[in-house]
Specification:
554 residues, mainly alpha, 2 strands
Length: 554
């Protein structure tokens, strides 16, 4: 009863408009975080269109409902002589306002679309609007994303239980990938007319029905509830960013235990995703969380998080060893970090190193706590980042000097990312001035590659590319310099805005971590309607969250 009494004590009728707005936000976030990742129509075969249609429908519905809620809130605020949420609550550098950069980004996409209507007809205007020649990230998708962002970022008073629900969905998606990776004998589940009799049989039937009809050559490319392994890798970065952050910065034991379970499981599925973008994205997340944990005096928890990830990696290495040596089953080992880390001795060594580091940090914290508190943390962070930067340059230089594959850029680099990136740069360099500024139109890359490089592309890569597999290059070709500048500007402005006003809030930290992780993995991955919407939603939630914090201080 006490919690209900607290609710009614905190209730203020002059803020009814805010309560309605936040209720609509909660419903939308539940649908995005917990339902959207599980929606299927024809299993993996039309997953991109299915998720795109679902996202557009629920987001358009959200936009309509939230506009009505805001209309009521403005009316109610005026009636009760209080400030509406639309009133800017704090003076700040206008160039740091995320709404400004989102507006620029939408304008860039719109001008890119106009280019398709005024050129010689090479790029189909309808395809640029719908994105049907690529991954369905056309102008229509960005218009809906932009409107959602502009409305959601005004005010979000969200609590961690929403992310707990997201965690259950995440664990389900992780479990699907693990079972698919192990690939137990499920012939009896494929019989026509089979009706699952139990929870376990029903789960296995659901899991393997997802891959029903997938050819043997492509069987290992599709996994979990996200389809392509690269897209699943994108989700791993997003979800691990959420729960690593929750584990480190939440002070409630329940949230830390729950987040820890997700982190361990996430460490297991990273190798299953078999995509370097997951390791690179999570690496960026960990560097950022180290800095935050250091500044907030919870550095020991950061190393606990690394140990949990190491445990997850250890578990999947043991599973792989059991599959290959006991079950005599082959599994996909295509290369990259996943292949090199798939050794028991490496997994054990990593765990030992992490435990030793944690022990050192724990000892130093206890022994020299007073001296550590006197350290200028801002200067320490600058020195740390400088060391990371110099070390990165040194590693790349040595790797290139010794002709190590990962550091030698050519057409084959990054499973032919070297080829498509080279051609994207050439497409931009050869483009007329207007196309340099505004691009060729959303999802125009497939048409451009087929027009100028089809024969070479097929002979070199044996595939047709419809995406740059690098979001910056993708926007550079499709929306030009204006699109890239506004996209990067939106990220930087939102990141600084949230960080400056975060007040050590866990939800704000989660948004920052997700944004950074997604942005970094996007330098090797592709934008699509399956995980890209998460990036904009978490960004908007972060901005809306800190604005809610500002209002509580007024």
């Amino acid at each position: 009863m006490k919690q209900y009494n607290n609710f009614f004590n905190d209730f203020n009728k002059k803020y009814i408009g805010r309560y309605i707005i936040n209720s609509v936000n909660y419903i939308y976030l539940f649908l995005i975080l917990c339902v959207f990742p599980l929606v299927f129509h024809n299993y993996y075969f039309d997953i991109t269109k299915t998720r795109s249609d679902f996202f557009l429908r629920i987001t358009i519905g959200y936009i309509i409902l939230i506009l009505i809620a805001y209309g009521f809130e403005i009316f109610w605020s005026n009636s009760n002589k209080s400030k509406s949420l639309f009133i800017v609550e704090k003076k700040d550098n206008p160039w740091l306002y995320p709404e400004l950069w989102m507006t620029f980004f939408l304008m860039s996409n719109f001008f890119a679309y106009l280019i398709t209507l005024t050129d010689d007809g090479m790029i189909n205007g309808n395809s640029a609007f719908t994105g049907s020649d690529g991954r369905l990230m056309g102008l229509s998708m960005y218009l809906v994303i932009g409107l959602m962002f502009l409305l959601l970022c005004r005010y979000v008073d969200i609590k961690l239980p929403v992310y707990v629900l997201f965690g259950f969905m995440t664990l389900f998606a992780y479990l699907v990938s693990i079972v698919q990776h192990v690939d137990p004998d499920t012939k009896r589940f494929s019989k026509i007319g089979f009706k699952p009799k139990g929870l376990l049989e029903g789960f296995l039937y659901y899991v393997f029905k997802l891959k029903d009809g997938i050819s043997k050559k492509q069987y290992n490319i599709f996994i979990s509830t996200f389809g392509n392994i690269n897209i699943f890798a994108s989700f791993i970065v997003i979800s691990l960013a959420v729960f690593a952050c929750m584990f480190i910065f939440s002070n409630k034991l329940f949230y830390r235990i729950f987040a820890g379970i997700v982190v361990v499981t996430g460490g297991t599925v990273m190798m299953i995703a078999n995509s370097d973008s997951a390791y690179i994205g999570v690496g960026a997340v960990m560097i950022f969380l180290f800095i935050l944990a250091f500044k907030d005096d919870v550095i020991a928890r950061f190393f606990q998080t690394l140990i949990l990830l190491g445990l997850g990696n250890f578990f999947i290495v043991l599973i792989n060893k059991y599959m290959s040596e006991v079950l005599k089953k082959k599994y996909d080992k295509r290369g990259g970090f996943a292949e090199h880390l798939d050794r028991v001795d490496y997994a054990v060594l990593i765990l030992i190193i992490l435990v030793v580091l944690y022990s050192i940090v724990f000892f130093v914290n206890r022994k020299y706590k007073d001296k550590l508190e006197k350290i200028n943390k801002n200067k320490a962070v600058i020195i740390f980042m400088a060391v990371i930067f110099v070390a990165g340059i040194f590693i790349v230089y040595i790797g290139n000097k010794k002709h190590i594959g990962a550091f030698t850029f050519n057409y084959r680099w990054g499973t032919f990312r070297g080829y498509i990136w080279t051609k994207c740069v050439k497409l931009f360099k050869d483009a007329p001035l207007m196309n340099k500024l505004f691009g060729y139109g959303n999802e125009s890359l497939k048409t451009l590659m087929n027009t100028y490089y089809h024969d070479e592309m097929v002979s070199v890569t044996n595939k047709i590319y419809d995406n740059a597999h690098n979001e910056i290059l993708q926007y550079l070709v499709t929306t030009g310099l204006c699109g890239v500048i506004s996209y990067v500007g939106l990220f930087i402005a939102s990141f600084i805005y949230i960080f400056k006003n975060s007040k050590k809030n866990v939800v704000a930290y989660i948004s920052l971590t997700v944004m950074l992780g997604y942005f970094v993995q996007g330098l090797m991955n592709l934008n699509q309607p399956i995980t890209t919407p998460f990036y904009f939603v978490f960004m908007a939630v972060g901005v809306g969250c800190v604005r809610a914090l500002m209002r509580k201080d007024m």
